[in-house]
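Tokens in:
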């Protein structure tokens, strides 16, 4: 029996603890028809996305009485209750009968006077209400989407303080006899652009409008792509976290991102933390950059603020050729949903495109030739070579900085036939023939190669008895076959001696014939 009583006592104690603990959690507010007395209609921000979800928590600061129809409302609290603004220029105070009134003054040295004209509370008063321990939790409601509304029953008349997970701007209003409030937080926006591309080879690699402040650009393997992320931060900013994911064809430089608000450089560790800054084994799977803005900094934003994040990445040997390009994805988390997960801006994904061309070495009969060799240059003078590496038979790629810096590195020579040269952005390049096929003449001038937002591949017709025959596309380089010159081992000048002898004999015959004619 003793054991049974003890068990029952323990169970009762647990039940009491659970019952007490349950009061710490806000109940979900029940929905009612808009305009119902003792109700509040809450509308989400008009800048929200369809997928954004916000949770609103309603607190009662003062009780109130109302006849449910007129605009009149009387606020009640325990006699002597006082809530003073943090700037000490306004206060709520209950008199001996428990009637709550609003008092203001122009300076701390002035006397307070009842104020019935102000319609907006000061930031100092809002801060004081946030810290007021006497407010009671009424309940919560979650709303999803842009400009979406729910009307909830708050149980009784009163003066209410409403927080939201959309940001830190709160709403304070009365049920008089009902209230309609709009969430005044404004959702942040994010824009990510390619600011510029810096060529690794110097020379005349094309920049131009397509490569500056754009959602797309073209680049060579080894080039540096400079990015600018723009966050339009708003008053009430809450829980801002920037995420950046590079595709496998891009690698971060070693220089950390620079974060600014307008022209002011923010301080790492104080205004934000660089939670992640690293290349992954395979980029594209998780954050390469994570920047978490501190609450202290976000709370300091009192007006629209432009935050910029600048950093750079290098196009590497894994770059996708043409196709979908090499994207860099940026998103911004803000606020949070009822499940604790953040709201997130739509991803912004500027892309870097890399292309290739196919070199076709043939003769004037379109027959593909082998044995020729070429180098690739940035300019027509052919002084700034673009270093290549041979990645497979018939395929060459622009070398990376690491490859060029390796001990014993020598730039590959292009061996023709029909090789592919990959890893190039838009621009004009030049092929210089350094060796001609046997029995063919070396080209006197370099051949221009233009890349313009597409690969340039060749097509061929093939027979079973002859080499490939060039059909179209690619970069055709034609060699002319040389003509054999006279030499001492052939007929040489003999033909000229024979012709000369014949002419001399002919002249002699003519002279003899004329003399005989004169003698006769």
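Residues out:
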């Amino acid at each position: 029996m003793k054991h049974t009583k003890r068990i029952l006592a323990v169970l009762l104690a647990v039940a009491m603890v659970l019952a007490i603990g349950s009061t710490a959690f806000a109940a979900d507010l029940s929905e009612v028809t808009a305009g119902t007395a003792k109700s509040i209609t809450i509308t989400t921000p008009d800048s929200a996305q369809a997928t954004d979800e916000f949770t609103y928590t309603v607190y009662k600061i003062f009780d109130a009485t109302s006849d449910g129809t007129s605009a009149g409302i009387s606020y009640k609290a325990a006699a002597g209750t006082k809530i003073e603004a943090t700037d000490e220029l306004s206060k709520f105070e209950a008199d001996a009968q428990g009637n709550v009134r609003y008092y203001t003054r122009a300076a701390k040295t002035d006397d307070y006077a009842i104020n019935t004209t102000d319609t907006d509370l000061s930031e100092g008063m809002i801060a004081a209400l946030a810290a007021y321990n006497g407010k009671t939790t009424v309940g919560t409601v979650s709303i999803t989407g842009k400009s979406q509304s729910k009307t909830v029953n708050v149980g009784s008349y009163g003066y209410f303080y409403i927080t939201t997970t959309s940001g830190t701007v709160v709403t304070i209003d009365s049920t008089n006899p009902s209230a309609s409030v709009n969430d005044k937080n404004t959702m942040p926006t994010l824009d990510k652009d390619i600011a510029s591309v810096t060529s690794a080879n110097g020379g005349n690699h094309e920049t131009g409008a397509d490569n500056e402040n754009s959602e797309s650009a073209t680049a060579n393997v080894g080039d540096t792509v400079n990015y600018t992320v723009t966050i339009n931060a708003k008053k009430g900013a809450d829980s801002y976290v920037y995420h950046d994911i590079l595709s496998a064809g891009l690698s971060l430089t070693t220089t950390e991102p620079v974060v600014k608000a307008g022209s002011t450089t923010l301080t790492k560790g104080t205004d934000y933390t660089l939670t992640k800054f690293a290349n992954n084994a395979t980029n594209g799977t998780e954050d390469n950059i994570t920047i978490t803005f501190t609450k202290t900094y976000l709370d300091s934003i009192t007006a629209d603020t432009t935050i910029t994040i600048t950093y750079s990445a290098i196009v590497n040997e894994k770059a996708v050729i043409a196709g979908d390009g090499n994207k860099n994805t940026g998103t911004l988390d803000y606020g949070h949903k009822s499940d604790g997960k953040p709201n997130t801006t739509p991803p912004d994904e500027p892309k870097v495109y890399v292309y290739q061309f196919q070199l076709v070495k043939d003769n004037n009969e379109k027959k593909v030739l082998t044995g020729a060799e070429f180098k690739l240059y940035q300019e027509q003078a052919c002084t700034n070579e673009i270093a290549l590496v041979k990645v497979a038979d018939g395929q060459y790629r622009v070398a990376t900085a690491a490859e060029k810096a390796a001990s014993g590195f020598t730039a590959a020579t292009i061996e023709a036939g029909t090789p592919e040269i990959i890893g190039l952005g838009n621009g004009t390049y030049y092929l210089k023939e350094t060796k001609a096929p046997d029995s063919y003449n070396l080209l006197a001038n370099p051949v221009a190669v233009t890349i313009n937002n597409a690969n340039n591949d060749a097509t061929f017709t093939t027979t079973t008895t002859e080499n490939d025959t060039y059909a179209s596309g690619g970069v055709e380089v034609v060699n002319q076959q040389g003509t054999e010159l006279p030499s001492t081992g052939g007929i040489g000048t003999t033909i000229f001696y024979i012709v000369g002898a014949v002419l001399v004999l002919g002249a002699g015959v003519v002279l003899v014939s004329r003399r005989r004619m004169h003698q006769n």
